[in-house]
Amino acid sequence: QLVESGGGSVQAGGSLRLSCAASGYTYSRYCMGWFRQAPGMEREGVAAIGNEGTTRYNDSVKGRFTISKDDAKNTLYLQMNSLKPEDTAMYYCAADLDGYCRLSWDEYNYWGQGTQVTVS
């Protein structure tokens, strides 16, 4: 089970930190990712982190967002700085059990319910 938290409403230029608490398995063995979906838009990959800590980012968030994890807490994070209105979306965390660790949503096996981020 994956449970996201930390979403909310923020003004442009502000920051939020999303968390994703995992239970039921040791997610640290797998690649984990953050995705987002705005109304009427396709789900897109935001960032991913492999079991060894290698990260990958969507070009639109490079330099602004940071993905990290705390293996001891079985928790994934997404620090989002310098937020823009175009970052407004529902944000989801997901687990890739096959280890591709790319930003393709169809390669991820388990998903959380999402947390809304609104930037005005």
Name the poorly predicted regions.
Answer: none
Question: Structural class, judged by helices and strands?
Answer: mainly beta
Mean pLDDT: 94
- Cα shape: globular
Number of beta-strand segments: 11
Structural overview:
It is a single chain. The model has no long low-confidence stretch (mean pLDDT about 95). The protein has no helices and eleven strands. It has about 120 residues and is mainly beta. Strands 2, 4, 5, 6, 9, 10 and 11 form a seven-stranded mixed sheet that branches. Strands 1-3-8-7 form a four-stranded antiparallel sheet, with no helix packed on it.
Task: Kindly list the characteristics that best describe this protein.
120 residues; mainly beta
Write the layout of secondary structure elements.
Blueprint (H helix, E strand, L loop, with lengths): L1 E4 L2 E3 L5 E7 L8 E7 L6 E6 L5 E3 L7 E6 L4 E6 L8 E8 L13 E2 L3 E5 L1
Parallel strand pairs: 2-11
Antiparallel strand pairs: 1-3, 3-8, 4-5, 4-9, 5-6, 7-8, 9-10, 9-11
Q: What's this, in brief?
A:
The protein has 120 residues and is mostly beta strands.
